[in-house]
Model the fold of this input.
Amino acid sequence: MDSRISICLLLCISLQFIYTLADSDNYIIHMDLSVMPKAFSNQHSWYESTLSQVTTTNNMLKSTSSKIIYTYNNVMNGFSANLSPEEHEALKNSVGYISSIPDLPLKLDTTHSPQFLGLNPYKGAWPASDYGKDIIIGVIDTGVWPESESFNDNGMTEIPTKWKGQLCQFENTKNSSFCNKKLIGARFFNKGFLAKYRNISETIVNSTRDTEGHGTHTSATAAGSRVDSASFFGYANGTASGIASLSRVAIYKPVWGPDADAVSSDVIAAIDAAISDGVDVLSMSLGYSDIPLYEDAFAIATFAAMEKGIFVSTSAGNSGPSFKTVHNGTPWVITVAAGTLDRESHGNLTLGNGVSLTGFATYLGNFSASNLPIVFMGTCDNYTELIKVKSKIVVCEDKDGTLSSHVYNVVEAEVVGAVFISNASELLQYSFPLITINKKNGEIVKDYIQSSSNSSSIAKMSFKITSFDAKPAPSVDFYSSRGPAKSCPYVLKPDITGPGTSILAAWPANIPVLDFGDHKLFSKFKFLSGTSMSCPHVAGVGALLKGAHADWSPAAIRSAMMTTSDILDNTKKPIKDIGKGNKVATPLALGAGHINPNRALDPGLVYDVVVQDYVNLLCALNFTQENITAITRSSTNDCSKPSLDLNYPSFIAFFNAENSSSRTSQEFSRTVTNVGEEKTTYVASITPIEGFNVTVIPDKLVFSKKNEKLSYKLRIEGPRMTQEDEVAFGYLTWQNEKHVVRSPIVVTNSQ
Ligand SMILES: *[C@@H]1O[C@H](CO)[C@@H](O)[C@H](O)[C@H]1NC(C)=O
Ligand SMILES: *[C@@H]1O[C@H](CO)[C@@H](O)[C@H](O)[C@H]1NC(C)=O
Ligand SMILES: *[C@@H]1O[C@H](CO)[C@@H](O)[C@H](O)[C@H]1NC(C)=O
Ligand SMILES: *[C@@H]1O[C@H](CO)[C@@H](O)[C@H](O)[C@H]1NC(C)=O
Ligand SMILES: *[C@@H]1O[C@H](CO)[C@@H](O)[C@H](O)[C@H]1NC(C)=O
Ligand SMILES: *[C@@H]1O[C@H](CO)[C@@H](O)[C@H](O)[C@H]1NC(C)=O
Ligand SMILES: *[C@@H]1O[C@H](CO)[C@@H](O)[C@H](O)[C@H]1NC(C)=O
Ligand SMILES: *[C@@H]1O[C@H](CO)[C@@H](O)[C@H](O)[C@H]1NC(C)=O
Ligand SMILES: *[C@@H]1O[C@H](CO)[C@@H](O)[C@H](O)[C@H]1NC(C)=O
Ligand SMILES: *[C@@H]1O[C@H](CO)[C@@H](O)[C@H](O)[C@H]1NC(C)=O
Ligand SMILES: *[C@@H]1O[C@H](CO)[C@@H](O)[C@H](O)[C@H]1NC(C)=O
Ligand SMILES: *[C@@H]1O[C@H](CO)[C@@H](O)[C@H](O)[C@H]1NC(C)=O
Done:
């Protein structure tokens, strides 16, 4: 026998050995830096030494150094490592060990459905002007397609000197030329992912290049440069621009594979690096559900970012419309819900008698035939009948709500075109010429066909018509996750709504946007929907506000956005909730309102929060000192004034029925800071909440100088709520001649 077999044998044994180590997993370990022996020059060497003492000695395949995945400098005191259960147990007895959390997988809040083609562009109406010019937005996502025109740096000034980032990692080069004055940094993080999922390492590229598309889209949404005549095959033709079109972007890629997977050790390493590099704003369209704050690597890492003054925008999630589906219920970030906009994609049907009717359409092809015969086919439920009229435009009527299966019939029958009479707007067909018209127009079409003698009725179809007057808009979309937040219900989440449905932004040129018949279609821009899309809008507005108000804390920026947001839509009625049958959206869906960047620049008053306020909240949540340390990194947390009543620009009270007393009350304290005119008086008013008494004391605040702080109390009294998931809400508004400072008030039993 030759030597190959023995090699194979050895390999097989080794593989077997690796396999038996499969029990090992990644952990994120909190350490107490204050007990680090003086002998160690830095924390990394201390961690290595600590680990070497617990490493199983017969583990020859892995050296100690490879067990540490990352040492973290900013987001926590500690490291991540791949350990066997025995090693993990042994580590718990080491000097300085505080606690550990498992390295949990998480997914990006990608689109909620393939309904990417859309109805509304983001407005981009407000000129970003100089705002955002020296602001750096870090985007934690799937990477970037650096060649996209949205990252051109035409006319941009020098990179701000505060930027410390050195790396621009693409295609295995340490320092590539893909970066410029717009795209100023690019780094990837896959060590945790590779340690946890060794079996898929070959599919992971060592590059920040976006192989999925999502990160290109979100980073262009936050801060893409202006690109003229951007469109999606003719729909939504116009100038594409990020919200802060002169801000810089730095891309951090901890998300891998076709399914946009990530692990927290990589994500917090990305946040750690972004803090070191000097970003001002972070945009993160991912999050954990259903874990306590002290085990949520995101909550932990963003606490450090908040302390450094970084404004962190996160997505609410796409798990709506049920209550308690919101993630990132973290009190020190802004949590963003998603709404629709006012743009729609249309098609026209022009009848032989010259009458032209408009309906919804998303067909991407080039439809040219005119004077086609048009026939009415009832509900289009008979495929055999449809086959017989392949060369005609068929008209189908939605009678019983089974329309989607009938769409399938006409597509399968390959009729030349179809008109559906339906009130459904979601019949999006990209590769089949279909127009959806309303009942009124449907009657006109049916009358025309019936009155035309002898099937002489003809029509033509045209597509790619964009309208900007959809009403009502915005509405909170179906998929957007709803509060209250499980991890901390005492702070009302989500905070705010931004444009999330059918957002057009940059897309990698080599990733197909869809299959059109038998060929793939490519586009430099694409429509996507989700809270992933609304999150970078708010990050972009954060950059504008930071540019205009360098001295504002992240909490002040969040407050400015929330108290100036819109609660009325473009019909001047309260914003609706598509997920709740178009009823008025409650703050558990909408947050404080829909973001209004121009008004947020000048809010009048802000609700500021300092680090100790957050600690007081963590104390009141009854977390152990150890648990609080996991978040704050401080070994001494002052819990002398625990309080669930955070100085937040919104209110949520739980009036659950369990208690014997039929009535109850709750009081909140708030302190507002005057960031508007020097001498001014604000007067309170309350939008009544039916069945509840809400009072404000005092109801007048007289400011004599800028940055003065004044306090008030808000008291809610009323019955306990008995029915499941009851929600009542109203608003507290402080008003002077110039400013309206509004906060939502929610009373609920949904905790
Ligand atoms: C990368 O390139 C920049 C600009 O050319 C340079 O300043 C920096 O030192 C380089 N960094 C590394 C790690 O080579
Ligand atoms: C890799 O292993 C994990 C479990 O350890 C499994 O869930 C996953 O499907 C595997 N992936 C591949 C590509 O084999
Ligand atoms: C990426 O880098 C890691 C470690 O640096 C290496 O093990 C892996 O093979 C590389 N992957 C590719 C696809 O080059
Ligand atoms: C988009 O609009 C521009 C200017 O209005 C026009 O020149 C261009 O042809 C349009 N492109 C498409 C695809 O409709
Ligand atoms: C579509 O039809 C409407 C009337 O319903 C008409 O006003 C409009 O000009 C038509 N648009 C095109 C591009 O044909
Ligand atoms: C429609 O025509 C344009 C211009 O000729 C072409 O670029 C595009 O690929 C065509 N679309 C389809 C779906 O074939
Ligand atoms: C469909 O129409 C054919 C006649 O073209 C008829 O024989 C058949 O019964 C119909 N099928 C259904 C399900 O109505
Ligand atoms: C749409 O029409 C169907 C019946 O055709 C009806 O059941 C449904 O309630 C309508 N939906 C809306 C939103 O009007
Ligand atoms: C109706 O159609 C028949 C045959 O299909 C034809 O003979 C007749 O002339 C047509 N009548 C009219 C009014 O067009
Ligand atoms: C914390 O514990 C106290 C005392 O047991 C209790 O009254 C309070 O309700 C708890 N707070 C929370 C948020 O669970
Ligand atoms: C939270 O506190 C519990 C009880 O003290 C402890 O078992 C756990 O390790 C702590 N977790 C963290 C991350 O601090
Ligand atoms: C509100 O206050 C009034 C006057 O104090 C009282 O009569 C009423 O019962 C209160 N209503 C509720 C719902 O608490």
Summary: Residues 3-20 form the longest helix (18 residues). The chain has a mean pLDDT of 88. Residues 364-366, 516 surround 2-acetamido-2-deoxy-beta-D-glucopyranose (ligand 6) (CB under 6 Å).
